[in-house]
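$ run holo --ligand "zinc ion" --emit tokens
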Amino acid sequence: MIGRATDAIFPPHAFDGGARPQGEGLSPEAWTRVRFIEDPRCDGCGTPFEVDPGARCAACQSDPFSFERARAACVYDDASRDLILKFKHGDRTEHAGLFGRWIARSAADLIAEADAVAPVPLHPLRLLSRRFNQAAEIARPLSRTADLEFLPDVVVRTRRTETQGGKSGRGRERNVKGAFSVPDERRKRVKGRRILLIDDVMTTGATLDACARALLAGGARAVDCAVVARVGGGV
Ligand SMILES: [Zn+2]
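-- output --
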């Protein structure tokens, strides 16, 4: 289900007990346009649709991801794209806390079971040109409020991938296959743990899947994913 129940996202008293966060560079108009994803949704990929709690969509049943479950706070559309792009390009870095709180709400069940939080990494060269990794910036405050260990560098890019934009589902899969790993010396930090992987946007899930595969190969017990927005949830 998709809702515009903004009072649930920004209740009169914020989750942290503070005042209602009117500021943070978000006009009331901007966030009333964001379409938040509510239950029911697929337990595997987070797509909103009519389903019993815990059930999975046909795609997740026939071709499951290597991560166990995914949750997205909102639909990736014109409204959320605008907010996320401004954040990504460094104009609105204060959105990190806001996005973290959106994820804290939409992925509350995954956070409750997680042992640690890890971001999808950027390639070092891209990190240089962009100055910051948006996934890490969202994951850091989230890990603090959730009281979970933050693991910013357990997953690394082993090669530079092309941008996923404009690629088909299979093309995206090929592009990121084997592009991530957990370095040997960092394996002890993931071993036997349930890791919550964070990114800003989920499109086909190929990048999250490749990162989850790396974490599992590195000894993680299980991987769940939480993103700000997902493509294809718009019904
Ligand atoms: Zn699904």
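-- notes --
Residues 42, 44-45, 47, 56-57, 59-60 surround zinc ion (CB under 6 Å).
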